[in-house]
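Records of this kind hold a single protein each, on a pair of labelled lines. With that in mind, the following record should read easily:
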Amino acid sequence: MKATIAMLAVLALTISCSKVQKAEKNMDDMNSSTKALGGNMDEMKSTTTTMYQQIRSKESEDTRNKKFEILNSKEDRIGAKLAAAAVYFKSFEFQLWAGTDIDSNHLREILFLDAANEFTRKISDIYSEIKLKKMSPTNSGTKHSSEESFYALAATMHSIHHYQDELVSENSKIEEKSFYNIVKRALKKDSEGENLTEYETILVNGINREIMIELIKARVDFLAALGLKNLTDKRNMTFGQKLKAGLFKLTEGKLGSIELPETFSSSNEATKDQTIKYLESALKAKSFLVEIGIDKQLEKTLKSAFSKIKLATDDGDTESDSQDQEESESSQDSDNKRVKIQNLINEILI
């Protein structure tokens, strides 16, 4: 009996040891599997990161190429080119930079460099086809296709992708960057003799510096032209005004003048507000050029047209004639905008 009990005890101990060994083996296998899974997860994360950056680069590049086809087109007009240029600048990969571990500050600098290299190469072809001395925002048609493309790019350089807008709003430590910001900073540092980054050097190297400056000059003229368009209507020109305008163009500004019928008094508030934005943006661009030692006179057609503008109040009287009249809050606001617009015009004409 005792022998039987002893045998059962030995058997139970043997089975127990076997289970422990099996459990230990299972634990070792689980540890190995966990380590392998961890390695696989790291590999998956690395692969996903690489794929994300490759897809982002490809998609943004494809978009830019498609939009630049419109800018190179002889058939598309200024409206289509403005829309294409805005999307082109928003599609630079630095606009989609996320500011995460995979998108380091160093990578952002590389993306700035990529943008500078691409833009300077593409804009040079357009620049070689334009005649600066004869350029005017008032010109249109196939003959002036390259000029229209240049103006479109100049007017939309400030464009920011909404993704970057949201990123900056969520993180105040991140500085918002448009291509226009980058160009201005490069020109400012160059004019002051400061050390330049690699991408800034590209933008002010050789003829590139000239192109960047001419783009900002074109920005002044084009934005001012948009403001002028909101303030006047050439469809209502008298025969005498048309005659003067024809003489002005025929003699390249030596004789005649550009006098356009004003529409301020019949414009709605949205038009007046947008006009102020156009003229303020044009003046800011002009002021920046002054900062870096560049004189910018308004294009002669625009200068002639703006010099003839003397904005009337809503009832057609001049400011001095209307001072004694009782005005409503809305008419007072309109009058304030009139004064502001006239002041902006005067500053742009200097």
The two ends are 121 Å apart (CA to CA). The chain is about 70% helix and 0% strand.
